[in-house]
Amino acid sequence: MCENGKHKLLDKYNPKEFEEKLYEKWEKNGYFKPSEEKEKETFTIMMPPPNVTGKLHMGHALDGTIQDILIRFKRMRGYRTLWLPGTDHASISTEMKVVQKLASQGIKKEDLGREKFIEAAWVWTKEYGGTIQEQQRKLGCSCDWDRNRFTLDEGMSDAVLEQFIKLYEKGLIYKGKRMVNWCTSCNTSISDAEVEYHEESSKLWHIRYQITGENKYITVATTRPETMLGDTAVAVHPSDTRYKDLIGKTCILPIMNKEIPIIADEFVEKEFGTGCVNVTPFGTQILKHLKLKRFVELITNYFNENRRELVVC
Q: In whole numbers, what is the pLDDT of the chain averaged over residues?
C-alpha cells in the first residue's frame, strides 16, 4: 500500500488483497486456454474429477497443486497446454447425501418419487459442484474453465457406455459372477472403497464332516457356521501331513447331506483352528480368489423381493 507516494510494506502477508484480482485477470485474458499455435507440441492433463458430495479437502489441494505445477511448467516451456477440469456425479455417495438432507427435513426418498428425487440431486450437484470450482480457483488452478465437464453432461454417459462396449467386444473386460458388497439401505452394490470394516469378538466353531464311505471325519474350524449350508468344498494346505491322504476324496456336508470335494490350496493357514477351511463361494473376500483358481461349484445367492434377506440355493 502507498502513503504520500511512498510504498509501505505491510506487517502481514494478505493474499486477499491481490490474489482474487490477479486470478480474474488471468482467466479473463484466456491465459489458461491452449495456444492457437497448433504446430506447438501439446501437453494435456485430464483432472481426476472430484466427487460432488461436499467440499474439497487437503488431499484435493495437494493433488491440484501438483497438477498445476506441471501444467504451468509446460506452459512456460512453450507447450500448447490444456488442463481439462470437471466433477464426478458419484451417484451412490450423492444419493446418500441427498437422502440425509431430505431426512433432516422429514422427507423420505420413497415419498418424493423418482423424478422429484432426481431434481433434488441436481440441486445438490449444482450447489456443491459450483463450490468445488470456486475452491479450485482460490487454489490458483490454471484450468480452461470454458471446457469444464460434469460426468452426467449430455454425451458423457453415452461416451462411457460406448467405451465399455468396445472394451467388452475386444475381450479386455468380461462379465462374470462375482462377490459384491450389497447395501441394504440403498438397495444397490457398492465398491470396496465404500465399505468400512470393524473387528468384533467371535467364537470358533468346530463342525465334523464325514468322509464319504468311511467311518472317519474331517473337522472344520470356522467363525461363521451359518455359511456352511453353501459350502462347495473343504480346503486344507497341500503340505499338511495330517490331511494328505484325504486330498482328492469327498466328504458329506452336514444337514444338506451333499457330497463335496476335499481340496488343497496354499491360502489355508495350517496353524489356524484345525487347519481345515470350509469353502463357501463368495462367502468372504479371502475365499474369492480360491474359487477363481479352482472352479469349485458356484452357489447362486439372490435377494428376496425387499432385497434385505439373502437366500442361498
A: 83
**228, 254, 248: which is closest to 236 by C-alpha?**
248
Measure the CA–CA gap between 91 and 264, rounded to whole angstroms. 42
Provide the β-strand partners of residue 242: none
Grid cell in block for residue 171: 475381450
Place of cell 507516494: 5
CATH of 205-312, one of 3.90.740.10, 1.10.3720.10, 2.60.120.10, 3.40.50.170: 3.90.740.10
- What are the C-alpha distances in Å from 237 to residues 141, 175, 269, 279, 288? 55, 31, 7, 13, 17
| Residue environment code for 31-54, b if the CB has 16+ CB neighbours within 10 A, otherwise e | ebbbeeeeeeeebebebebbbbbe
Give the domain ranges of the chain.
20-169, 205-312
User: Which CATH number is 20-169 given?
Assistant: 3.40.50.620
pLDDT, tens digit (0-9, with 9 covering 90-100), for 235-274: 999 999 999 999 999 999 999 999 999 999 888 899 989 9
